[in-house]
Amino acid sequence: MKELDLLKKDWQKIDNSFVQVSETEIYKMIHKKSSSIVKWIFIISILEFIVLNSLSYLMPNEKISDSTIVELVISILDYFSYGVALFFMYLFYRNYRSISVTSNTKKLMECILNTRKTVRYYIIFNILLVFVMSIVVFFNEFQIEYANNNGAKMIFICLLMLFFIALIIGVVWLFYQLIYGILLKKLNRNYVELKKIDL
Amino acid sequence: MSDNLEHSFVKQLRENQNIIHKICRLYTNDDDAHKDLFQEITIQLWKAFPKFRGDSKFSTWAYRVALNTAITLYRKTKRSINTVEFEGRQHFLNDVEYDYEEEEQLKLMYQAVYQLNDIEKALIFMYLEDKDYHEISETLGISEVNARVKMNRIKGKLKKILNPLGI
């Protein structure tokens, strides 16, 4: 391609056209803060871990049920969730550490996406956990109310609460998609493009 | 980090800064964006510098970090298609025999390259820098054969942009 050869010839000479940055300017630059997506992903992910973990402290800590079995199930789930949180934080740390700007482009992109995925799975796990806990509590309450002939009222309350939980999860999810949509749009697009080359 | 390390980095970066300028020229469309990307690449290079052992040339190492920053880590995206970029460099073309037709062709070629996507630009960049397909494939993490195939497709795409009717 004739034009490409022309461009290549010109490209070799292009060096003279750049305004050279001085050593003093470089010194200044390296003390400035990075605005890379990895930094943002790290900050947002840490916030997500903190928020999700502190949610359980905000919940009323009173006895949920008189039934010892329900209490037992709830506390097992509670301890289980702490273990899982620690596990996810370890995975997150490991994935985050594997992000290296000196890897090849594809590997770098995969490491960033994997770090994100860890946090996403943690969030999905938490949503499922809340769901399971709610079912246990509702089922227990339902049994008690049913015995007191308040079954219809109880079903109505359950449905109402389910609706609100779904609404809150929906809003949070949308917000979440928006943040990561903006942050990872370019990366995702380039990753797809890079993967297509090797298909 | 020690002053020595900092000094050695700053010196090497100053000497090799045109690599970064070239990448900034491909991936940005105005001076502000150019400076911004230059700064981000410099920060990323500095952060990775303690692990740079000198078993490859500083420039080779810098290529990879700079490209990765432009394609993956840098968040801001381009605002408009570049058309003014070419103006600034005409002065040195005046030194040699001035060829208007060649000049016009070059201008169109630069504009065509700006229309490529980020990955295609990376391939073109390394091609212009005379990198072989082995290095291109290692840098991007794709196979050598496919890098070759992709490069041929990009040439085809550029041809199409330059001459959409295929006359």
From TrEMBL, chain A:
Keyword terms, alphabetized: Membrane, Transmembrane, Transmembrane helix
Transmembrane segments: 37-60, 72-93, 119-139, 154-176
Name used for this protein in its record: RDD family protein
Source organism, top-level taxon: Bacteria
Species of the source: Flavobacterium flabelliforme
From TrEMBL, chain B:
Alphabetically ordered keywords of this record: Sigma factor, Transcription, Transcription regulation
Domain of life per record: Bacteria
GO biological process: DNA-templated transcription initiation
Stretches assigned to the RNA polymerase sigma factor 70 region 4 type domain: 109-158
Cited Pfam families: Sigma70_r2, Sigma70_r4_2
Coiled-coil ranges (or none): none
Domain RNA polymerase sigma-70 region: 14-79
Molecular function, one GO term: DNA binding
Family the UniProt entry places it in: Belongs to the sigma-70 factor family. ECF subfamily.
Name this polypeptide is given: Sigma-70 family RNA polymerase sigma factor
Organism: Flavobacterium pygoscelis
Lineage, opening ranks: Bacteria, Pseudomonadati, Bacteroidota, Flavobacteriia, Flavobacteriales
